[in-house]
Amino acid sequence: MNRNTLHIYNLSRSARRSFLVFIAAAFILQSCTERIDIQSDEEFQKLAVEGYISPDIQVITLTETSGYFSQQAPAPVSEANVVVTENDEIYQFSEDTENPGNYFPPENFTIEPESSYQLTIDLKEEIGGESHFESEATMPVLSDEIDSIRVIYRSDFETWIIKLYAYEPSGPNYYMFTAWVNGEAVTDSLSRIGVADDKIVDGTYMNGIWVLFLKEDEVAVEDTVTMATSSITEDYFRYLTEAQTEMSPKNPFFSGPPANVRSNISNGAVGYFAVFSSAFSTTIVREE
Amino acid sequence: MVNVFTRNFLLIVIFLMSINLFATDPREGYTISGFIKDRSNGEILPGATVFVSGLQRGSSANPYGFYSLTLPSGDYEVRYSFIGYAELTLNFRLSADTTINVELFPTAESLKEVEITGQAVNENITSSQMSVSSLSSQTIKEIPAFMGEVDLIKALQLLPGVKFVAEGSSGFSVRGSSPDQNLVILDEATVYNAGHLMGFFSVFNNDAVKSVDLYKGDIPAQYGGRIASLVDVRMKEGNMKKFHGQGGIGLISSRLTLEGPFAKDKASFLISGRRTYADLFLKLSNTENLRNSALYFYDLNAKVNWNINQNNHLYLSGYFGKDVFKGGGSFRMDWGNATGTLRWNHVFNKKLFSNFTFIASQFNYNLGIPEGNQQAFLWESAIRDYTVRGDFSWFANPNNNITFGFSSTYHDFFPGQLQGLGDSTTFGKYTIPNNYSLESAVYISNDQKIGNHLTLKYGLRFSIFNNVGPDTVYQYSPEGSPTDSAYYGQGVFYNTYFGIEPRIGLVYQLNEVSSVKASYSRNYQYIQQASNSTAGSPFNVWFPASPNVKPQVGDQVAVGYFRNFMDGMLETSAEVYYKIINDAVDFRDHAELLLNKHLEGEILTGKGKGYGIELMVRKTRGKVTGWISYTWARSFKQIEGINNGDPYPAHYDRPNDFSIVVNYKVTPTISLGATWVYLTGQPVTFPVGRYEYMNNIVPVYSERNSYRFPDYHRLDLSFTWTEKEKPKKRWRSEVNVSVYNAYNRKNPWVINFLNDPDQPNVTYAEMIYLFGIIPSVTYNFKF
């Protein structure tokens, strides 16, 4: 099914799940799961980059990839030379000694809307035969004029749904949605964020479209819910949807063959250097 | 070089035909012709043979049961025979053109009336067609069935060179090719999606099916458009003799078929229906959501058959099937096929037989949230085909059987539209416009006997494909992004491809019971499925060749040795093949195949190749029947943009494939069946590394398909009790008990790599297997 179409993606996911449940019920049988041992014998190492430049967060995190079943926290890559360039201004990022592998900007670092940022990484020691890595990303226009958001509970999905009321400007736009409940981040992982394109709402007024799903126990009536609507580039949108797809269980009916997630870092590094800006809206959850 | 080859081939065909057809004096003899039918029900018997003792000359009935044989005047003994039927011998003096319509007795029911000669029908030895397997509906019925649902496609999957695409799936791969490279036709109408219930059952109701022929690559010149195989399913015509019914009550579905004459030996009908009712149990559920849910399929086959006179027959047949899934009031999807075929057989003269066919075929699906819901939407997609074809058999002389004809299909593909429903919807509308194309062909083929040992089959199919406006055609960058577009108005033929498709075969008969065969065939495929699914899904769209997508071209050479033992009771064969596919289609990583205006930007093309050896031993008569087949085969693809442009095993590359199918008739009323299959595990891509992004683990993969699932194997068993035939009792009962996966093998359907939700750094592999041991009971009846 189409993974890019706003919440239909999420809907179809739950439909698929319930569909399989139905098949099981109808056949008086259960498809069963069982953990199995897989020998994954290839050894290789690459640099993994998780970089964000936005008005709200600026950090470049460097780690090393590990074997799939390594069962360890990723090893940080320390003492790298991390530089971000914007409009010929050079900013030297420095590593947080408390959190090795995390590099933060200098105090004079400023965020310019629609600006282009170049990232350069030089490692002290080679990883996967490379020590120099580059990337570039441009901050998209913050495109939504958000009226409001609303949070409703759907008993059939046993889920809280954040509905968005906003004008969607015409032309292709891509979004990432994240939420906080009473100031606490609830969608702080790849699997929980919402990602969407505007294919079926392009240039229209989005009258309460479902954009984010929160678990039953994460929200209560009277809670304050804040949602960030971030305008992201098409390439980052594709990175996020690809990564979400690859970390989710596969269903032979719908899933394509496994394929590596794209990256915008040079020289074989994995991960992404993302540049975006966000609009925030807040609401208080009311009894229906 | 290819062009030189095809041009030369064309010249050779014309030359061979001209010396053969016109060298013989057409008035050197007289012609016997007519139809060969089943005595018990009047059904025609395609492939039945006519053999003239003494002269050692013979012929066989065409797909409509018509035969024609020209002989010098004289006294003859002519033998009519067909597998499963008692041979009929006629002695007569031929002194004028003669029409002889014969009816053969099925052996099982004719023991008392006719002595069975035991004469073997060595059709498999003498036929110039190779890489073909035929199954009758009776053979299919004897195979242990999944959930008790007798299934033609599942039966085909047990033949050498044929593999299912996933556990329980009615999708299949022939000689390593993808499922959309099989042309599946039901009474000549293309069936675009042969699966019910996500493919766990096929759309063919065996009660309405007469026979199925599978051609692996060496497709007769009459057909084309797919590079891997032709599955030719023929519906019964309907009993011409007496009214008759049959049906069954199974665990998940019930069936009823009625057939009979409108006028004896003149006109007949057949109507056959099937519906699952597992969803009725949902009504008993405690949850309201489940009570309001539905999950079922039904299908209906109908056929009317009218012998207007000796020279004109009309057949009208149709299929209609649908799957419906309704999840409470919140979700709904349905899909189905509909086909209609009108055929007119006309005998021009003793030697020239014709068939004109008009076909309509449709596959569509809808899914969405019903109106009344703020999120209400409807997603629709459809394929429609309209075909006209004319096929001629010219029995020129005893040594030359010529078939020729034409076909033309108008494709109307509606890839999809998504739109909001009702006033309160939050959706707009997103439509991918229809695309139109015309796929046409003319063909000619000759089966030529040279001496007593050699038969040549040489044919040529010339296909032509036109894209027809209105359409907007985009140009794409190497990365697949649209860069420019051109609009073509209604009715404009804006792009044309054509293909010269030679089909050559020869059989050299070493003696009465053994032969060597060889064949070469080329097939063009102009339409294909946009599917990434490894298990087959109804929610796929088909797309045509276009300025951006070249047709796929398949070339196959095959050589085989065929030997019968024990009076033809035991048929053995060994075939070796090698095939290459040019402009094979695959998709970019993470391709978006549905609801995508720029689908063509997701397509990558390259080369495919496959080779293998297929061995089979088949026992056709006696208390124990069945076959053992073993295939060793490989299949690879090499496509720029996938796997760094390096060759990789195709998804259907399963080197070792072993099947045993046995039916043991213990007594006239009790039979036992067993099937065992063994296949190398399917090739898969596994993660070899990982990194963290946004607090989740993202996998890094191996080369494409460089790992394999554990090997697949499974045993199915069945027990059938059939009530004794009693002269006065019409109603006959039959009880079938079958067990699927008898030793409860856990064959993985998918292996997922997951992040332990409680331990963030822990990843593990988890397999899902669909079916454990599944017993089922079916009650069948006949009257």
Please render the helix and strand layout as text:
The complex is a heterodimer of chains A (288) and B (783).
Chain A: H1 8-27, E1 32-36, E2 47-53, E3 58-64, E4 66-67, E5 81-86, E6 89-95, E7 102-104, E8 116-127, E9 130-138, E10 145-154, E11 159-167, E12 174-181, E13 184-185, E14 194-197, E15 205-215, E16 224-232, H2 234-247, E17 270-275, E18 277-284
Parallel strand pairs in A: 2-17
Antiparallel strand pairs in A: 2-3, 3-7, 5-6, 5-8, 6-7, 8-9, 10-11, 11-15, 12-13, 12-14, 12-16, 16-18
Chain B: H1 2-23, E1 30-38, E2 49-52, E3 57-60, E4 66-71, E5 74-81, E6 88-94, E7 98-99, E8 102-104, H2 123-126, E9 132-136, H3 137-141, H4 152-156, E10 162-164, E11 172-174, E12 182-186, E13 189-190, E14 195-196, E15 201-202, E16 209-216, E17 229-235, E18 244-249, E19 253-263, E20 267-276, H5 288-291, E21 294-309, E22 312-327, E23 331-347, E24 352-369, E25 377-397, E26 400-420, E27 429-432, E28 435-450, E29 454-468, E30 471-476, E31 482-488, E32 493-511, E33 514-525, E34 527-530, E35 541-544, E36 552-565, E37 570-587, E38 603-619, E39 624-639, E40 648-649, E41 656-665, E42 670-679, E43 683-684, E44 687-693, E45 696-701, E46 707-708, E47 712-722, E48 732-740, E49 750-755, E50 763-769, E51 774-782
